[in-house]
Design goal:
The complex is a heterodimer of chains A (406) and B (285). With 406 residues, chain A is α/β, with parallel strands linked by helices. Helix content of chain A is 38%, strand content 19%. Chain B has a two-stranded antiparallel ribbon. The chains are: A alpha/beta (406), B mainly alpha (285).
Chain lengths: 406, 285
């Protein structure tokens, strides 16, 4: 009751309003990293990164920004691109589409960037792609693994899509798990689309889908689902529930004795970050299908080199992992670098034409190349199985896997 | 039949979790008349402290004991510094506490790197009865919830401190005239509510893992529970939380979970429309 006498006077209101508007006007600016030698005649090439530095996807966005910093430093140290330095402009999309559109517009209109790479969720891509491509007349690279079906011109995707996730993975699950599949899923576009694809592969490979069910994104109690899985004697759970629900779901599944009775967990997006959401024994034997695992560094010197370079520059908690789109960002920027070199210019059409068939020999997990005419990327795929809190690579594709998109 | 046993146990245990989370919110709303939008973040903070204690090498159980004390102390301090300035304006209080919550949430997000971190339960595994498995930690949560409800009820209904709290709520002026320091009572009540949230966070973190948005998930459910239960008494929010928790956990067994999620809120709105005072309408205990 102390404050009862303090009424909101006009002076008080004006003072508060002045503070508030000053705070809004100053605001947090964008993060610009200028190259040390901006003396080239044409000025630097401007590379825009629009990613989720804050909000729920901040752990991934910061990783992607770090990867971009690493690559830009590498290119600039070698003398730049086309003899020009690269200026890196990083904008926060804040895991929030309406904030993102404004910040991306800044990159396009104020900073006039030559490329935008970024966006992590599909909804983010859909929110910013028009600002970048149609109105912004700029090239856009989307680095995260996603549901596919994005065929817009000037939009290049460098993460794995359902065909790459599933074609090798589902036959493996049938062989090492069984034929009876359950597909518990979060209710949004990625699970819906990948399930439609996975169901076809399951049925063509001789498996059957016992049930496919969708849950609200914030559901965190899955007792009825777990009970159905156990009572229907499901062999393989092909999970597309995403955080925060996935960790209580796996825990409840473990507690109900699913793994003990020989059940196999399959989850295409599981990487080193998601691994620590549960205690190791709860997800022992979980199989995942991605384009890169840290475990690869033991056998692939290129991956080892990239991982070591990243860990040396960014020893903090943002891990270089496939699920964070770190590998897609790496691939995307390197493919773009190759395309700019081939085109000899940063003109959008010329770079897009070169990017359409760009190739890189060295990347995390192996080489990568664009499939001409599809704006999607061929890459190596691996199956990792969780053992004692680490991944063990148990299978790898026999070469680059085609995305089968567009 | 087996499925029925499992269903009843799971519904009961999730109901207990919701009651535990809502209890602190309900006490602050009922005994102080303000809605604390930072309550979800007090839950988060309890979870984070448990994680912190575990990560520096101490047993999780110790973290669970430290969490309510630390969160309660923080609540006491926040009440003294921030919240008490808002008692005259309940709407501003909502915004103010929301801002506090936002600060706590984003701080925890920064500290955890936005990741999802697991915390082991002090008593793990499951109790096996025939072919049925019951998670041990969920059983523990049910028992602790019952104990906490009983202890909180006893505190408010039978102790002289509880009497002072109720007096300060019913008639603050008369309470002050009678020599009760209402501002101290408010501080302590707020701290008590915060401590309960901290305890809830500490107990549920092994079940749901630690992530920055842990609190928000329960905040909305908590408010609906308090609305349904009725403000002004101790029993109201507890009853409301039991009903909401039971419905949230039971409906997905009967229908598509996406519909069940919405239906809980639709039913709550219809109920409040016809009984705006909530399940328990009397004031006091």
């Amino acid at each position: 009751m102390i404050n009862a006498s303090q009424q909101l006077s006009r002076r008080r209101f004006l003072r508060n309003a002045a503070f508030a508007s000053a705070a809004i006007a100053i605001g947090p600016g964008s993060w610009v990293i200028r190259p040390n030698w901006a003396n080239a005649t044409e000025g630097p090439i401007r590379l825009g990164i629009a990613t989720d530095l804050t909000g729920s996807l901040g752990f991934a966005g910061n990783t992607d920004a770090n990867v971009a910093r690493m690559i830009v430093k590498e290119i600039n140290d070698k003398g730049g691109l086309l003899g020009r330095p690269i200026e890196l402009l990083i904008e926060d999309t804040a895991s929030n589409e309406s904030v993102a559109v404004g910040n991306v517009r800044k990159l396009i209109q104020r900073d006039k960037v030559d490329l935008v790479l970024g966006g992590i969720s599909s909804s983010m891509r859909n929110a910013i792609k028009d600002v970048i491509i149609s109105r912004g007349k700029t090239l856009y690279i989307y680095p995260e693994g996603y549901e596919g079906k994005e065929c817009m011109p000037y939009l290049f995707c460098t993460g794995p899509v359902p065909a790459q996730n599933c074609d090798q993975f589902i036959p493996w699950l049938i062989k090492h798990g069984g034929k009876r599949f359950a597909m518990p899923s979060s209710n949004y576009i990625w699970p819906q689309t990948i399930n439609a694809y996975a169901r076809k592969v399951i049925e063509n490979s001789g498996g059957e889908v016992i049930f496919e069910e969708y849950y609200p994104l914030d559901q965190i109690d899955f007792s009825s689902t777990v009970s159905r899985i156990i009572s229907n004697k499901v062999d393989v759970v092909f999970n597309t529930i995403v955080p925060p629900g996935v960790s209580p779901f796996f825990k409840q599944l473990y507690e109900a004795g699913f793994a003990k009775n020989g059940g196999r967990l399959g989850c295409v997006y599981y990487d080193e970050n998601t691994l620590e959401m549960n205690q190791a024994h709860e997800i022992e034997g979980l199989a995942s299908s991605l384009d890169y695992y840290k475990a690869l560094t033991a056998e692939d010197p290129v991956s080892a080199k990239i991982q070591a370079a990243y860990d040396k520059q960014f020893p903090a908690k943002f891990r270089f992992s496939a699920g964070s789109a770190a590998t897609g960002t790496y691939r995307g920027l390197k493919l773009w670098e190759a395309a700019v070199k081939e085109a000899g210019t940063i003109d959008r059409d010329a770079v897009a034409a070169a990017l359409d068939h760009a190739k890189i020999e060295e990347g995390p997990g192996g080489p990568a190349e664009m499939v001409p005419g599809t704006r999607h990327c061929k890459m190596n795929m691996y199956i990792g199985v969780a053992k004692g809190g680490q991944y063990e690579i148990v299978a790898r594709s026999a070469g680059l896997v085609a995305p089968k998109e567009c | 039949m087996d499925t029925l046993f499992i269903a009843v146990f799971e519904i009961l245990s999730f109901g207990a979790i919701v009651v535990l989370v809502v209890l602190g919110l309900g006490i602050i709303a009922s005994m102080m008349g303000i809605f604390n939008f930072a309550q979800g973040e007090f839950v988060l903070l309890g979870a984070y402290i448990t994680y912190l204690v575990h990560s520096i090498g101490f047993p999780v159980a110790l973290g669970m004991m430290v969490a309510p004390i630390a969160v309660g102390a923080l609540g006491f301090m926040l009440e003294m510094v921030v919240v008490r300035r808002f008692y005259a304006a309940p709407i501003v209080a909502m915004l103010g506490t929301y801002a506090l919550g936002l600060i706590i949430r984003e701080a925890v997000r920064g500290l955890t790197g936005g990741l999802y971190l697991s915390v082991p339960e002090p008593i793990g595994g499951s109790i096996t009865v025939g072919a049925l498995h019951f998670a041990t930690w969920r059983c523990v949560i049910v028992v602790i919830t019952l104990l906490v409800i009983a202890a909180s009820y006893a505190l408010i209904a039978y102790t002289s401190f509880g009497l002072r709290i109720r007096a300060s709520l019913e008639n603050p002026s008369l309470a002050r005239v009678s020599g009760i320091s209402t501002s101290m009572i408010y501080s302590v009540t707020f701290a008590f509510g915060a401590a309960l949230a901290g305890l809830a966070g500490a107990l549920i973190v092994p079940v749901f893992s630690l992530f920055a948005d842990l609190g928000i998930r329960f905040l909305i459910q908590g408010f609906v529970a308090v609305m349904v239960g009725g403000i002004g008494s101790f029993a109201g929010p507890v009853a409301g939380a039991s009903v909401i928790g039971t419905f949230s956990a039971a409906l997905p067994w009967l229908m598509s979970p996406v519909i069940a999620d919405v239906l809980v809120f639709v039913l709550a709105i219809i109920f409040i429309k016809f009984r705006p005072q909530g399940l328990v309408s009397r004031r006091g205990v």
